[in-house]
Write a structure and sequence with these properties.
The structure is a single chain. The chain is built from 4 helices and 7 strands, in the order E-E-H-E-E-E-H-H-E-E-H. The protein is an alpha+beta fold. It has a 5-stranded mixed beta sheet with strand order 2-3-4-5-6.
Length: about 140
């Protein structure tokens, strides 16, 4: 089940419960004006004009109780302004992450050591919005 955006501790929170409904379907979400302002403040930049996130989650066949998150982020970011000239960045990046429990991660350490991983909780819920925001941050400062 996909939950609606809620003000959480994360500025761009999109909590997903990993179940059949959430798998193998492409989803799209974007940040509200309020979320853009809070993310810009968190990343200590001037402004995020827009932030779009599309993703699909699939079940991994090679690792028990693991999933793959394939995401794409699109954003326009103004890092700072000097002499009335904006230093802006256009971001259009894809990423993939393996989603799993802590036990599954421990039991598959060798297989996962070259992968980006994120842990879901005991209810199989994970904040994929926060994952997308972290990738946005990486893109801004690369």
């Amino acid at each position: 089940m996909i939950c609606s955006p809620q003000r959480n501790k994360n500025e761009f929170s999109r909590v997903v419960k990993l179940c059949e409904f959430a798998l193998d379907t492409k989803f799209f979400t974007n940040a509200s004006c309020d979320e853009l302002v809070h993310m810009a403040k968190r990343f200590e930049i001037e402004k995020i004009k827009n932030f779009e996130f599309e993703y699909i989650i699939t079940k991994r066949e090679d690792i028990w109780d693991a999933y793959s998150l394939f995401g794409r982020i699109i954003a326009t970011v103004i890092k700072f302004t000097v002499a009335e000239k904006d230093e802006s960045v256009e971001i259009n990046e894809k990423f993939d992450v393996i989603l799993l429990s802590e036990d599954t991660a421990r039991n598959n350490y060798e297989q996962l050591q070259d992968s980006d991983i994120e842990l879901f909780d005991k209810n199989k819920e994970i904040d994929i919005g926060e994952i997308a925001a972290q990738y946005l941050s990486l893109c801004i400062f690369m």
